Amino acid sequence: MEREAPTTRAAWERSCARIESALREAGAAAAEDLPKLEEVRVRFLGRKGELTELLKSLKDLSIEDRRALGPKAQGLKASFEAAVGARRAALEDASDAASLETDALDLTLPAVRAPRGRLHPLTTTLHEIARIFQLMGYSWAEGPFVEDERHNFTALNIPEDHPARDSHDTFYLQDLPLLLRTHTSTVQIRALESSRPPLRVVCPGRVFRHEQLDATHSAVFHQVEGLVVDEGVGFADLKGHLQAFLQQLLGTSTKTRFRPSYFPFTEPSTEVDVQCFFCPGSGCPSCKHTGWIEILGAGVVNPVVLKSVGYDEKKWSGFAFGIGVERVAMLLHGVRDLRDFYTNDLRFLKQFDESLL
């Protein structure tokens, strides 16, 4: 049953005295636990609490009485709230201390850092290769994964009967005269078609070949190819660019050698080796006991290629090169099996810090 609001000063003072006595008896400062303390608080300061109702009843008194009695009621409320707050803090501290004793949890210890994603070592290697060439004045060029035979083979002077065109080496799309690109040289052809010399581009990206998976081969891998076309460009320029690049990438003490080779789209052609990282040239299984590891292929652009894209092959010349990203990553990080990069094994990936590159 709800109490009637006191309408006279004397009745209000009697109600105030009764509530003040009830507050002392309730003993907020002596509440045993938080639920008991909350019961006391609601009893007096809830929406229909006794102290709340007393404060509401001030409006029924005269202005003079409100001025005289209001501070007393507000002071009673403030002292009760302070007692409740102090007791709550004490109970919470006691609860925390008991939890620490029970759970043996040290809240002062630093929090465990949540796992953080990082770039894959192949991504950091590809970016570093491209970064070095961009510092040398090369621009970045990209192209589609799905290509036609002209851009992938014909424009690169690869004859119709070349083994690379066979389905044993190339992934052809069913019922379409298209294929998955086998090298990023296709991007070079597109760059030549869409621009006019002088030209200096680097073409990073994923390529696809019908390879047997083993420690050094994969059906999907990454290449970075470069192309320079200008007047008077020759093999000496190629050697200078590649030597500067490899020393920037692998260190100034890197030893290289150039071996004659053959590619349909370059003439003359060369393969570039670096001294083995694992045995410093003495011979080991990684270098097939030769002391050298093949790292890229290159050569002077065949005039037939320039002619196929409408360039005057008597005026313009150039050189091109291609480097395998996986091979470089293996050398930089001492990885012996290329397949480790594709297993998504966190134990393997966590050892790499992208800040190393």
Helix proportion of residues, in percent? 25-40%
Order of the strands making up the biggest sheet: 1-4-5-9-8-7-6
Count of DSSP-assigned helices: 11
Quaternary structure classification: single chain
Total strands: the figure is 9
The radius of gyration computed from the alpha-carbon positions, rounded to a whole number of angstroms, is 41 Å
- Residue windows where pLDDT falls under 50 for at least 5 positions: none
The main pleated sheet reads as: 7 strands, mixed
Q: Terminal Cα separation, in Å?
A: 79 Å
CATH architecture of the largest domain: 2-Layer Sandwich
CATH class term of the largest domain: Alpha Beta
Shape: elongated
Indicate the proportion of strand residues: 15-25%
Q: State mean pLDDT (0 to 100 scale).
A: 86
Structurally, the number of domains stands at 2
Short summary of the structure?
The chain is α+β, with helices and mostly antiparallel strands. The protein is built from 11 helices and 9 strands.
Keywords:
BirA Bifunctional Protein, domain 2; two-stranded antiparallel sheet; 18% strand; 40% helix; 2 domains; alpha+beta; 7-stranded mixed sheet; 9 strands; single chain; 11 helices; 357 residues
